[in-house]
Amino acid sequence: MIDQLIDSIEKLQNPTVVGLDPRLEFIPGPIREEAFDRYGKTLKGASKAFYQFNKEIIDQVKDIVPAVKPQVAMYEQYGYEGIKAYMDTIEYAKAQGLIVIGDIKRGDIASTAKAYSDGHIGIVNIDGEGLEVFKEDFITLNPYLGYDSIEPYVKNLNERNKGLFILVKTSNPNSKEIQNLPVEGELLYQRVAKLLKTWGEEAMGERGYSRMGAVVGATHPGDAETIRKILPNTFFLVPGYGAQGASAEDLVPNFNKGGRGAIINSSRGIIAAYKNEKYKKDFETKDFAKAAREAALDMKKDLQRVMD
Amino acid sequence: MIDQLIDSIEKLQNPTVVGLDPRLEFIPGPIREEAFDRYGKTLKGASKAFYQFNKEIIDQVKDIVPAVKPQVAMYEQYGYEGIKAYMDTIEYAKAQGLIVIGDIKRGDIASTAKAYSDGHIGIVNIDGEGLEVFKEDFITLNPYLGYDSIEPYVKNLNERNKGLFILVKTSNPNSKEIQNLPVEGELLYQRVAKLLKTWGEEAMGERGYSRMGAVVGATHPGDAETIRKILPNTFFLVPGYGAQGASAEDLVPNFNKGGRGAIINSSRGIIAAYKNEKYKKDFETKDFAKAAREAALDMKKDLQRVMD
Q1: Interface pTM (ipTM) of the complex?
Q2: Which of A85, A160, B138, B172 could form a cystine bridge with B163, CB 3.0-4.6 A?
């Protein structure tokens, strides 16, 4: 799927992934009311509102961006009903031709990792019946437990053409607390990057990048530059642009020559654009998805500006 | 809840938590067949079989152990139906008087962590309706992102009497790869333990232990000894006993004086005891839950032997 992601970015000339991280306060009144009228102010009501919201956003961005990234926590907080909305969103996005990155950040010992791997990017076996469950194309993972927590995914990467993005350096302010600790003459995130380089060699795609990518926050451009040097053949998933504070200029170190090798996430900057002063004047609440489209087009322009 | 956990361990004289990590191959034929006859070999069928299995185990161990620890991955792999079985299991275990540790190992940036916190140990607000969703008493978290990924849980710890166990040193063989890296004269897991010491001071319970505990694998007794010295007032959740290879003797360094300050997990050693040669001769498949009870009593004896 890493090859398809690269193809799609090139075709659309846009290395953007839209973060589908809905919150009730982002959902326009009419969608919320329709869901609550039908299902009450319940976990199901909230989840149905999320799914409807996501569908309308997906319809408006599917010809502009190659991928969407639902953050599972936003759904999981509503229990199994929320997880159903997460799964329905993945199904809908894929049916519209989008690549789906499940932002799940799981990390566990091997026997447990196998369950996550089978459920999210593999096949679950129910007494001889093989079922695909979550169906993400990529998922994110946490490396703190070491390679035996990653290895159970490798078979699904290679045999089922799936992908991973492993946390190397996250976008949050406190990421330095552990990730930037000095380890034998380098910083921890650099060591993690070197481990990932070795791990990723087992899962190379056809277009020069591994199926095992890295999460590298846009909010630390100096660190990104270091990681890019360690990992020339690793694709970067880059959160932190826009609402978290990183500018297009900050993104430059994440890319290889020719603007290759990275995809930039924006969540509320796109999906809640209609609440932003910049778009409010041109889009009414009912046109929230069109505002998202406009914000996605603006982001594409902003990225193209610095990538040239 | 840390105080209640300590009380219950003392009352039962048993620092054991039963890991409810079902797999289809652990579920006795009759339970599987009933679920599949009714719901097919589907995600729902598997999930219903898990719930029935868990209920029977819970009924047999509830007067012996203070707590159960469902591993969410085992349920999550079956999608939203699996998550429903996870939630139903928590509800049932709590109704039987057990304390529930949700082994979720989440870890994400602050805004996302808040969603996990609200959903798992807090209150989710749906347009003015406050709902408890997962209802665990404790959950496990991954520290790789630093304190701003932990802070969103603190309010729920203190205001709602909930608890955390944060990964310090995990039980898997490759845990040393990152967790034992040398950092300024100590090892990374020691630094994480020191961070946890500071973080945990914000959430002290009444009985001398913080509401913010540590996960410390039983498979590395030397490391456990070091961590215990750094964290005298931190409660340890200790996986790795039994099936993962640690003996009762290996557990000793995890405890404070008087056998206090730690709870030991056993999953398949208890829930799948009926498949073990030791119990096979005395228990038929239909008595799988009684075999689990016997295994739980044997574990209690084994722990008491070394704690004296």
Answers
A1: 0.97
A2: B138
